[in-house]
Specification:
Elements (H helix, E strand, L loop, with lengths): L13 H28 L45 E5 L3 E6 L4 E11 L5 E3 L3 H7 L4 E4 L2 H9 L3 E2 L3 E4 L2 E9 L2 E9 L4 E10 L2 E2 L2 E5 L16 E6 L2 E6 L7 E4 L2 E7 L3 E7 L5 E11 L15 E11 L3 E10 L2 H6 L18 H17 L11 H33 L1 H11 L7 H16 L9 H16 L25 H16 L7 H20 L3 H22 L2 H18 L15
Parallel strand pairs: 1-7
Antiparallel strand pairs: 1-2, 2-3, 3-4, 5-12, 6-8, 8-9, 9-10, 10-11, 10-20, 12-19, 13-14, 13-16, 15-18, 16-17, 17-20, 18-19
Helix pairs in contact: 1-9, 5-6, 5-9, 6-12, 6-13, 7-8, 10-11, 10-12
Length: 601
């Protein structure tokens, strides 16, 4: 391979090589350490509690107002059943919910402001899974026969046809010794209120309100096992993924909220009385090849997990609110639980959560400040917001880059002294006691001259958390879901034509080529000149195109900034010192017989 020689770099220097290796090890350590950290710190699956067949009777044995009653000594009640299936549609500006009187449950929950992958309004009921495991707002009991009976029963609704929120809808059912009453109230936001009770022989039993079968936008995510159960207990939030969730586990805790979510949407219960709440985690398997909207998904049988939750009150009388909607920061902050907390923690930005949240808030602020012309027709505004926000970040980091160049220049100025110290000790082995003496003398020389061995690495080390936070944030915020930018149809998905990843390789190479790397071994520099661009292209090949857009713009801004800095007195002095060191090391001012690629200065 022909040698590539950067005009902005000079000869070696093991002390500077050490700085370079520290930066490299930190970068790769973070990448591979994330997986280890998650495996180490993810909570284990909750232990399965013994089945509860009947909870204690509440202090007052009288059901809530409007609830069917029965004498405690009666062995049967007057039958209350529907004669035929019927539907009731409740809607506001945000949703359209379709109830069936069979099971008094939801068969369709459409969010009007979002589309699925086919361009149709998004239905958050995963119908194929719901047919097997239960529809939303069905009842879960510890008696499988009773649970099935309550799902198949024909209830008597208080209204049929269409209702416009604000509204209320109730369902009643009675047969044998079982009486059921459900009331749902609807407002102008994504939250509804539920009041349910199941009486057997006149006493309430544990019958939890359920969202049993994941969310409808997961049809293309099921194969990747994405989905989690979110809970908040005494201010402690947990996000249990599929691998750490067992089916049928019962948890009795003061739940502020509990429910199921995926990347962008959530169905979360918020009990009116958190201190008396109980949660059952549901974990089932479904064959994606048999799902109606996923024909030919894969060859053979593909059993994938489906998560759900059931939440209720230990007294058996459930009163809870239910949020079903997007995991948008603005929306989640507007919803408050019984303890006056918000649902903001549902949006989990991962390991670099605080950094990711700040980055998104900044991106959102830039997006809000953009002129409406960029948002016309094709909704390109989020792509432009990423571009302008990236430029802003790089301008903020510019003083650190200048300071980094100054630190590297100071290191170059004292490099002859460092070389003399190494020659004095004749480069002892690591186990030689003289090694400690040599390092102490080198550190004293650096301190006396105001040099920090990590000074030149600070800009890169600061950018790493930003990059990793962007890496996670781009696929968690619903605002970027299905956002367009010219040939990119969804900034949260990979570039379909791989234009940005290819451009990544080019811009990453140029960014390294024009950035001074004094003291870095030429062979290491040559390796990194090819390895890092290929690595960045690989990272963005199948990942969110929004990340690739951010990374490319960042590289372009860095190249421009570095070109300007290389023309300053600071840059010229660095090149002069580097050239002298290179000449002393090689014994000549040219590379004999080697082909050199000269960069623009």
């Amino acid at each position: 391979m022909p040698e590539i020689r950067n005009p902005n770099q000079g000869g070696g220097g093991s002390q500077d090589n050490r700085s370079f290796m520290v930066m490299l090890l930190v970068m790769f350590g973070v990448i591979f350490g994330l997986q280890y950290w998650r495996a180490k710190h993810t909570p284990p699956p909750p232990e399965k509690s013994p089945a509860i067949t009947q909870s204690a009777t509440p202090q007052s044995s009288a059901p809530a107002a409007g609830t069917p009653t029965a004498a405690s000594s009666a062995s049967s009640v007057a039958t209350v059943q529907g004669t035929a299936e019927s539907t009731t549609v409740v809607e506001n500006e945000l949703y359209r919910i379709t109830f069936s009187n069979r099971g008094a449950q939801v068969t369709s929950w459409v969010l009007k402001g979002f589309n699925d992958t086919t361009g149709h309004p998004l239905n958050l009921v995963l119908d194929d899974a719901a047919k097997q495991f239960g529809y939303p707002l069905s009842l879960y009991t510890y008696d499988a026969g009773l649970t099935q009976q309550l799902k198949q029963a024909l209830y008597v609704p208080s209204a049929t046809g269409s209702l416009q929120a604000p509204a209320s809808l109730s369902f009643d059912y009675a047969a044998g010794n079982v009486t059921v009453h459900k009331t749902f109230s609807f407002g102008a936001d994504y939250v509804i209120h539920a009041d349910t009770v199941v009486l057997r022989d006149g006493a309430p039993i544990s019958a939890l309100l359920a969202w049993p079968a994941a969310l409808g936008d997961m049809e293309n995510q099921l194969a990747y096992g994405y989905g989690q159960i979110d809970t908040s207990t005494n201010g402690k939030d947990e996000h249990l993924d599929i691998k750490h969730t067992s089916g049928g586990a019962t948890l009795k805790q003061p739940f502020d909220f509990a429910g199921v979510s995926d990347q962008y949407f959530a169905a979360v219960f918020m009990p009116d009385q958190p201190q008396d709440a109980m949660l059952v985690t549901l974990h089932n398997q479904i064959d994606v090849n048999k799902m109606s909207r996923m024909p030919g998904f894969s060859k053979g049988t593909a059993q994938v997990p489906v998560l759900g939750t059931a939440v209720g009150n230990v007294s058996g009388h459930n009163q809870t609110r239910l949020f079903v909607g997007p995991k948008s920061i603005k929306v989640l902050k507007s919803v408050r639980t019984a303890n006056n907390n918000t649902l903001e923690t549902l949006l989990d930005f991962g390991f670099w959560g605080p950094v990711g949240k700040v980055l998104f808030l900044g991106l959102q602020a830039v997006h809000s400040a953009l002129p409406h012309a960029l948002d016309a027709v094709h909704d390109y505004s989020w792509g432009w917001a990423i571009i302008f926000f990236t430029i802003l970040i790089n301008l903020i980091l510019l003083p650190l880059r200048v300071q980094g160049m100054r630190s590297m220049l100071k290191m170059q100025r004292i490099q002859p002294q460092i070389d003399a110290i190494k020659a004095k000790y004749k480069n002892p082995k690591a186990t030689d006691p003289k090694m400690a003496e040599m390092n102490a003398e080198i550190m004293k020389t650096q301190k006396d001259n105001g040099v920090s061995m990590f000074g030149g690495c600070v800009p890169s080390l600061i950018q790493l958390p930003l990059l990793f936070a962007f890496f996670t944030m781009m696929t968690r915020v619903v605002e970027l879901r299905q956002s367009h930018w010219y040939w990119l149809h969804d900034l949260s998905l990979a570039d379909p034509h791989h234009i940005l990843p290819i451009l990544m390789v080019i811009t990453s190479f140029l960014a390294q080529y024009y950035t001074p790397s004094p003291g870095v071994d030429p062979q290491q520099q040559k390796m990194m000149a090819f390895m890092m661009p290929l690595f960045s292209g690989y990272m963005t090949w199948q990942y969110a195109s929004g990340l690739a857009l951010y990374w490319n713009i960042s590289n372009i801004v860095m190249i421009i900034q570095q070109q300007v800095m290389n023309r300053t007195s600071l840059g010229r002095e660095m090149r002069e010192i580097a050239a002298k060191r290179a000449a002393r090391k090689t014994g000549a001012a040219k590379v004999g017989g080697a082909r050199t690629i000269q960069g623009r200065r």
